[in-house]
UniProtKB/TrEMBL annotation:
It comes from the Bacteria. The keyword Signal applies. This is Lytic murein transglycosylase. Residues 35-243 form the Transglycosylase SLT domain. Pfam families: SLT_2. Keywords: Signal. It comes from Tardiphaga alba. Residues 1-23 form the signal peptide.
């Protein structure tokens, strides 16, 4: 679990707006009580949402609660209290800046096309990519997403939010974007190289390599374009400042509600734009 993922989990605890893509007035599955009964009710919800029986059966086969997920969630809520200076010093060092500059050069053509389409500067996209997963080379999570989300949805504190995320995860498999074996992520079900929640995956994911699937685990074009698409949809405007207090800084709340994270994105992007 990366520090950024901890920040996102804290943001989810105060209602991450990334869940809005699958928000409904209420879900039929009742939280708490017998876990297998809850899974059976979620299976009915999934079928009503258009998920095939084969996907439902494969996804829920043998699924059990993960107490480690609940324990981690309870430990992390409200515990992040570093200053910006303390935090950024551990996240944006010389090595990460150097690698970010290399990524800007290596993917210059791709990033230029993404900027033309979505209006998000390459430095912002690469900064997020670097912070979330060390440009795809770091830890993007190894936890089975279905088990994680079923555990969180069964817990009554944020059941509607995570029931929506669970349905979204099943739709990722249903669409053929990722096979079930690749549906692994972090402690709140975040997926891929820039750690999208499943509902964000469905809502903002872009097939930018043109292979017919949105693959945020393996396809760099899909990862970077989807990241830019999320920001554009949230109101990010190209050619405008993105420092604290600007409209672009507020647009980045769609990515993460934590001010300290958005300031870190901006700081990293500034360093990349300045050549290190």
């Amino acid at each position: 679990m990366t520090p950024i993922s901890r920040l996102r989990l804290a943001a989810i605890a105060t209602l991450s707006i990334a869940s809005a893509a699958f928000a409904t007035p209420s879900y039929a599955a009742k939280c708490g009580g017998d876990f297998q009964g809850f899974v059976a009710a979620m299976s009915q919800e999934a079928a009503a949402a258009g998920v095939s029986q084969s996907v439902i059966q494969q996804a829920f086969a043998g699924v059990t609660q993960d107490q480690a997920v609940l324990n981690f969630d309870r430990r992390q809520r409200g515990t992040f209290n570093k200053t910006f200076e303390q935090y950024v010093s551990t996240r944006v060092g010389a090595g990460r800046i150097k690698m970010g500059l290399q990524m800007l050069q290596r993917h210059a053509s791709l990033l230029s096309r993404i900027e033309q389409r979505f209006g998000v500067p390459p430095e912002i996209v690469v900064a997020i990519w670097g912070l979330e997963s060390d440009f795809g080379k770091g830890d993007i999570g190894k936890m089975p997403v279905i088990r994680t989300l079923a555990t969180m949805a069964h817990d009554c504190r944020r059941t509607e939010l995570f029931q929506g995320e669970l349905l979204a995860a099943l739709k990722i498999v249903q669409r053929g974007d990722l096979p079930l074996k690749d549906l692994v992520g972090a402690y709140a079900g975040e997926l891929g190289q820039t750690q999208f929640l499943p509902s964000s995956y469905i809502k903002y994911g872009v097939d930018f390599d043109g292979n017919g699937h949105v693959d945020l685990r393996h396809s760099v074009p899909d990862v970077l374009a989807s990241t830019a698409n999320l920001l554009k949809t949230a109101g990010f405007k190209g050619g405008q400042p993105y420092g604290e207090g600007t409209p672009n800084f507020e647009a980045m709340r769609e990515w993460n509600r934590a001010t300290i994270y958005r300031k870190t994105i901006g700081y990293f992007a500034d360093r990349l734009a300045a050549g290190g």
